[in-house]
UniProtKB/TrEMBL annotation:
Keywords: Heme, Iron, Lyase, Membrane, Metal-binding, Oxidoreductase, Peroxidase, Signal, Transmembrane, Transmembrane helix. Residues 1-22, 298-321 are annotated as: Disordered. The gene is efeB. This is Deferrochelatase. It holds the Pfam family Dyp_perox_N. It comes from the Bacteria. Residues 225-415 form the Dyp-type peroxidase C-terminal domain. It comes from Streptomyces ardesiacus.
C-alpha cells in the first residue's frame, strides 16, 4: 500500500445530471414540468406524478462513458466496487473479442447514463439513478496471444517480477480481460456486474471476481482522504489531476506509436496493477497506537507525519531528517510512508484507487480482509515496480500484510462517440 491520496473530489468526468434509468418523458400536471429536469432522477418507470420524489445528489451523480480517457481512473472513489477478470472461451479469437467489447461498451454506456442495460435488463437498479457508476475495461498479457495480436502487445505489459512478499493464487490472478466497476450504490454496482457477466455469453468465462467497498460519499462532515481497514488514513500523497505532470505520470502519451509509450492504440490509456492484499488484522490490532504510527510514519488520528508538530496536518511536508531528544529518527527508517515517497524512489508515482474488502472469517475467527489495491500509471516499470521492490527490501508494514493475487492490465484510452473500447486495437 503506497502513500498516495484519492483523486480530487471535483472532476469534470463526473457531472450531476437528473437522469432516470428510463428517461421519463411525461409531464407533471398542467404545468408541463418535465420530471427529473431539476437534478433529480425519476426511476425506471413512469410513476404517477404526485408520487415522484427527487433522488438525492448521491443518486443523480453521473460519470461520462465517452471521453479522452476511460472512466474509473480519475473518478472520485466510489462506495462499492467489483473487479472481474475473464478468459476468452476455447476457440474464441479476435472476431469474438471485438463483438464482446462492442456489447460491453454499449451496456456500460447505457448503465452509466442511468438507462436499462437492454431488452434483458434485470431491474435490479430500477429505482436508482446513475450513482456515479463507472465501467472500465483492460487487456491482460494473455489476451494478445489468444487473439493473434502479439505484435500489438505493449512492452509495458510484460509480466511483473516476483516479489518476496508474494503469496499469489494463480487462479485469482491475471486474465485475458479485466473489468472494474464502481458505483455509490451497491445495487447499481451489482446490476452492472451482472449485465457484464451476462453479456460475455459464450465468448468468455469468469476467471475470478472480487468485491470491495469504501466509505460512502457524505458520511463525513467534510471531504476526507479514505481510511483503510487498519484505521489509517490511506492515500495522502496521491498525484492529483491538477498537478502539472499528472498526465505524464498516469496516461500513455497521445504520440504513442512514434517511439513514445508503445503502440498507437494505447494513446491516452493507462496501465492498472491490481493486487489483493490481505491485512493480518489480528496481529495489527495487538500493536499499541504508538507502534502502529511508527510502522506507517503518520499519526493515526489525522494522517499528519510523525515529524509534524501538534498543529501539523495530513498535508504537512514530512521531515525525514528530524530526530527526537535521543537522536532517533522521528519517522523510522523503515516506515511505510518514508519508503513510498516519490522522492525516495526516483520520482516513481502512481494513482492509487483501491477498495477495501472483507470475505468473511475462517474457522478460527480470523478475518479474510484487506485491500483491493489498484494503481494507475503510464508505465508500471517506472511506477509500481520500483516502489514495490523497495518495499520488499524493508517496509515495516510487510509483516502485517500478504499479497495474495496480482494482475497487470493495459487499459486503452476512452471510446469516442460511436466507438467501442479497444476498437483501435481490434480493428486497427
Amino acid at each position: 500500500m503506497a502513500d498516495h491520496s484519492t483523486p480530487e473530489a471535483h472532476n469534470p468526468e463526473r457531472t450531476r445530471e437528473g437522469l432516470s434509468r428510463r428517461r421519463l418523458l411525461g409531464t407533471a400536471g398542467a404545468t408541463g414540468l418535465v420530471l427529473g429536469a431539476a437534478g433529480a432522477a425519476a426511476g425506471y418507470a413512469a410513476a404517477p406524478s404526485a408520487a415522484a420524489t427527487p433522488l438525492t445528489s448521491l443518486g443523480s451523480e453521473r460519470a461520462m462513458f465517452h471521453g479522452k480517457h476511460q472512466p474509473g481512473i480519475t473518478t472520485p472513489l466510489q462506495a462499492r466496487g467489483h473487479l472481474v477478470a475473464f478468459d476468452l472461451a476455447a476457440g474464441a479469437g479476435r472476431k469474438e473479442a471485438a463483438a464482446l467489447l462492442r456489447r460491453w461498451s454499449d451496456t456500460a454506456r447505457r448503465l452509466m447514463a442511468g438507462e436499462p442495460a437492454g431488452s434483458r435488463d434485470t431491474d435490479v437498479a430500477r429505482d436508482a439513478g446513475p450513482s456515479s457508476l463507472t465501467v472500465t475495461f483492460g487487456f491482460g498479457h494473455s489476451f494478445f496471444g489468444r487473439t493473434g495480436l502479439e505484435k500489438q502487445r505493449p512492452a509495458a505489459l510484460d509480466p511483473l517480477p516476483d516479489f518476496s512478499s508474494d503469496h499469489l493464487d494463480k487462479n485469482r490472478s491475471n486474465g485475458d480481460l479485466w473489468v472494474q466497476i464502481g458505483a455509490d450504490d451497491a445495487l447499481v454496482a451489482f446490476h452492472a456486474l451482472r449485465a457484464i457477466q451476462r453479456d460475455a455469453g459464450t465468448a468468455a468465462r469468469v476467471r475470478w471476481q472480487m468485491n470491495g467497498f469504501n466509505r460512502s460519499p457524505g458520511a463525513t462532515a467534510h471531504p476526507m482522504t479514505a481510511r483503510n481497514l487498519m484505521g489509517q488514513v490511506d492515500g495522502t500523497r496521491n498525484p492529483k489531476p491538477a498537478d502539472a505532470d499528472f498526465d505524464e505520470r498516469v496516461f500513455v502519451p497521445e504520440e504513442s506509436g512514434s517511439g513514445k509509450g508503445g503502440p498507437a492504440w494505447m494513446a491516452n490509456g493507462s496501465y492498472a496493477v491490481v493486487r489483493r492484499i490481505r491485512m493480518l488484522l489480528d496481529y495489527w490490532e495487538k500493536l499499541s497506537l504508538k507502534a502502529q504510527e511508527e510502522v506507517i510514519g503518520r499519526r493515526k488520528s489525522d494522517g499528519a507525519p510523525l515529524s509534524a508538530g501538534s498543529d501539523g496536518t495530513e498535508t504537512t511536508e514530512m521531515d525525514l531528517e528530524k530526530t527526537d531528544g535521543s537522536g532517533k529518527l522521528v519517522v523510522p527508517i523503515n516506515a511505510h510512508a518514508r519508503i513510498t515517497r516519490p522522492d525516495q524512489n526516483g520520482g516513481a508515482a502512481m494513482v492509487r484507487r483501491p477498495f477495501s474488502y472483507h470475505d468473511g472469517f475462517d474457522a478460527d475467527g480470523v478475518p479474510d480482509a484487506g485491500l483491493l489495491f489498484i494503481c494507475w500509471q503510464a508505465d508500471p516499470l517506472r511506477g509500481f515496480v520500483p516502489v514495490q521492490r523497495k518495499l520488499d527490501r524493508g517496509d515495516a508494514l510487510s509483516q502485517f500484510i500478504r499479497h495474495e493475487a496480482s494482475g497487470l492490465f493495459a487499459v486503452p484510452g476512452g471510446a469516442a462517440e460511436g466507438e467501442y473500447v479497444g476498437q483501435r486495437l481490434l480493428e486497427g
